[in-house]
Amino acid sequence: MGEQTLAVEFRNITKTFEHVIANSKVNFKVQRGTIHGIIGENGAGKSTAMNILFGMYPPDDGADDGADRGVDSVDSDASEIKIYNNPVKWNSPLDAIAHGIGMVHQHFMLANTENAVNNVILGEEPVFYALRKLPSFFRLIQTKKAVQKLKTLAKVFDFEIDWETSIEDLPVGVQQRIEILKLLYRNAEILILDEPTAVLNPVEIEALFVNLKKLKEQGKTVLIITHKLNEIMACTDEVTVFRHGKVVCSLKTKDTNIEALAELMVGRKISLQVSVPPRKELSKAPILEINNLVLYAHKKEKKKLDHISFSVLKGEIVGIAGVEGHGQSELAQILLCPNAKEFAIKGNINIFGKNILSLKTNQIRELGVSFIPENRQVQALLLDAALQENFLLGNHDKRELQFYNLLSLKKIKEKLLSIVRDYDIRPGNTNSLARQLSGGNQQKLVIARECYSQPKLLIASQPTRGVDIGAIQFIHEKIIQVRDDGAGVLLISSELEEILALSDRILVIYAGKIVAEFNRGDPSLSRIGYYMCGASERENVH
Fold it and tell me: Could you give all domains of the chain from N- to C-terminal order, each with its CATH number?
């Protein structure tokens, strides 16, 4: 493709936050009408670059920071972004949107209590022409006109959407389609998707890729930030690799492979296979025992969990496999907070023989339970608190962090610096706010805190969601180490490969029921996908 087909060009873009260089002399190009992958480790600068493109952050003024230029370096020292070969400068995302750029963030920007139509048209409401100059309070919105346009767009992309249902009651895959419709409704020509498959099941991922190719056929340009290299290989035309805030290369996807991309991302060879040593002799007494558990959602009086029973023994990893939305989230939530008001529970949940249904979260933790919740930002972190405060959550009673029964700031800082180094949490400034970390580094902070407490039972829900391939390997090793130290691990993951690689025992959940159980190495594991989709044993056999 020639120069005239460029949709986006970064030239010597640098961005610093206080003393942290997030982007350093970033240079890369995106061809119009292509799907372009943006990859890199957590904290490598890829999301920062895309947020600059969308107008969320202004780039620095172009002063030379002494850093090397990335690949594709240009002769001029000018620092600029070009859209369709024209230099641009945004004051806010509104400027980017006006130039045909849209972004779907990893954490969706939707009003949960509003329906799909209201979410899509918010800020772009069609009004009667004769009333367009009146104050917004007096303008009448042409909702029918908006719905007609939305239904036309949805039909093109085979989006099935219940337009009148509140966002909070829609599956996450449908929520993502609504986010994409928001961009198309505003006539976006350049679409940025940040970790678009992080919360999707395999069927939804396949449907997303089909629609991305439709967007490409329409001449639109798509930029995808992702950690999943198999998805880069499956749907992109070109890929740009970030490392330590710089672009290390841009190349055509057909000219590379997963192993080469992984090495480019982290600067070293990465093993893509998880090596799990055999578990030791198991205790027959269960750490976690769930008996005939039924969970109702008060709001709809619908069973989320339907008479499930299983146990987790000392020194084993029990994996829960299933397409997302079949009760896994609710199971993790009640283990963390069994008194949640939105649920009604029947049955028993015992930890070390103690029924926890009447206990508070802190009392459950005191039994030796650690949690890695699926939503780190809502359930695990104080986003506007520093790393130090977040590390202390649940660890404030540790003797090694105290001096004469009082918390020692010196000891806390020393321990935290050690953990930040061991877990490679970037940036390594312990005074940084949790909000300032990338999603993957937030996740590493949560896992570091929960593993530091030396749990007897670890409940890990989506532990590698939004995490790069190098960190995934590290997190897997930590989970195995927790098991080998004698704890029981309940692993809940939408990543089937993760479940298969780590679990000593696998339970398949469908429609809130445990429908199958397998041991590691069971030859019938090849049938797991059938159970995940609701097939019966008879259907499996035939």
Answer: 1-100+189-269 (3.40.50.300), 110-188 (no CATH), 309-470+479-541 (3.40.50.300)
